[in-house]
Automatic annotation (TrEMBL):
Domain 3-hydroxyisobutyrate dehydrogenase-like NAD-binding: start-end pairs: 168-286
UniProt keyword list: NAD, Oxidoreductase
E.C. code: 1.1.1.60
Protein species of origin: Streptomyces composti
Oxidoreductase listed as a keyword: yes
Domain 6-phosphogluconate dehydrogenase NADP-binding: 6-165
PANTHER family the UniProt entry points to: 3-HYDROXYISOBUTYRATE DEHYDROGENASE-LIKE 1, MITOCHONDRIAL-RELATED (PTHR43060)
Family assignment from sequence similarity: Belongs to the HIBADH-related family.
Enzyme class: oxidoreductase
GO MF assignments: 2-hydroxy-3-oxopropionate reductase activity
Alphabetized Pfam families for the sequence: NAD_binding_11, NAD_binding_2
Protein name as annotated: 2-hydroxy-3-oxopropionate reductase
Length: 296
């Protein structure tokens, strides 16, 4: 029998499915729960154990990992008679890898402490590709001892793993990450439209730009999306809209000005209002095209 901790994984979406599968590949026993049967079937095919509820998934777990869309979903799976806090054993380590508000993470850690459950907030960056390739950046908030215990699990999921401070710190850093990514995608999208309207070979232009100071992980990851107008969701506009709300609210609360970020947040909101919320965030290109007179 494996001596590795038993893991309950809650949330098997675009990110959660490949991440849980990487833990299975690393030798962990993973019991998973999500709302979609096909995702549970996928987990079973990968060697995991499907559960019929959150309570069933977590009851025998040493570590519970949540990866759900936003704060309301974290609260839904954590609290209440069928939730994690009422059904996990005292001493369990709860790692929330969702992207939520810092305050939600702080409140969850406080509520869990009353139940003898330890908490880390550990949101990730890298998108679907990073999840599949196990090269995510993982920004963590919580206690050093809990981080040290979780480190081998994180190492099966990502490459850059950093304890950023107390509870909520991981979410604060993730909010900053999403600010940078959104502004970067917007800048790339504007450059693409400018280059195309100028009659330049777009593929050649993006290759040379990505080799210089204008290069970025965003451009590397999203270049083909721009070139092929392929907006299959790796990270949906709907979720980035949620994240831009988190960062603008958090920045307001600490007195930090986000003049560019606030504009990009409105552009993301506009794209979502135009029906593109289910597309990848590289679809910010569509917004720039519309502003430039293109029919999209």
């Amino acid at each position: 029998m494996s001596t590795l901790p038993k893991i309950a994984w809650i949330g098997l979406g675009i990110m959660g499915s490949p991440m849980s599968e990487n833990l299975i590949k690393a030798g962990y026993r993973v019991t998973g729960y999500t709302l979609e049967q096909e995702k549970l079937d996928r987990l079973a095919a990968a060697g995991g154990t499907p559960a019929s509820s959150v309570a069933e998934a977590v009851k025998d777990a040493d570590v519970v990992i949540t990866m759900v869309p936003a704060s309301p979903q974290v609260e839904a799976v954590a609290y209440g008679p069928d939730g994690i806090l009422e059904n996990a054993r005292p001493g369990t380590l709860l790692i929330d890898m969702s992207s939520i508000t810092p305050q939600t993470s702080i409140d969850l850690a406080a509520a869990a402490k009353d139940k003898g459950i330890r908490v880390l907030d550990a949101p990730v960056s890298g998108g679907e590709a990073g999840a599949i390739e196990a090269v995510l950046s993982i920004m963590v908030g919580g206690e050093q001892a809990d981080f040290d215990e979780a480190k081998p699990i994180f190492e099966a999921l990502g490459r850059t793993i950093v304890l950023c401070g107390p509870h909520g710190s991981g979410q604060t850093v993730k909010a900053a990450n999403q600010l940078i990514v959104a502004v970067n995608i917007q800048a790339c999208a504007e450059a693409v439209v400018f280059l195309e309207k100028s009659g330049v070979d777009l593929r050649a232009a993006l290759d040379v730009l990505n080799g210089g100071l204008a290069g970025s992980t965003v451009l590397t990851r999203k270049k083909d999306n721009f070139l092929n107008r392929d907006f299959k969701p790796g990270f949906r506009i709907d979720l980035h809209h949620k994240d831009m709300g988190i960062v603008t609210d958090a920045a307001r609360s600490v007195g930090a000005a986000l003049p560019v970020g606030s504009v990009v947040a409105q552009l993301v909101a506009s794209l979502r209002a135009q029906g593109d919320g289910g597309l990848d965030h590289s679809a910010l290109l569509r917004s720039v095209e519309r502003l430039s007179g293109a029919q999209v």
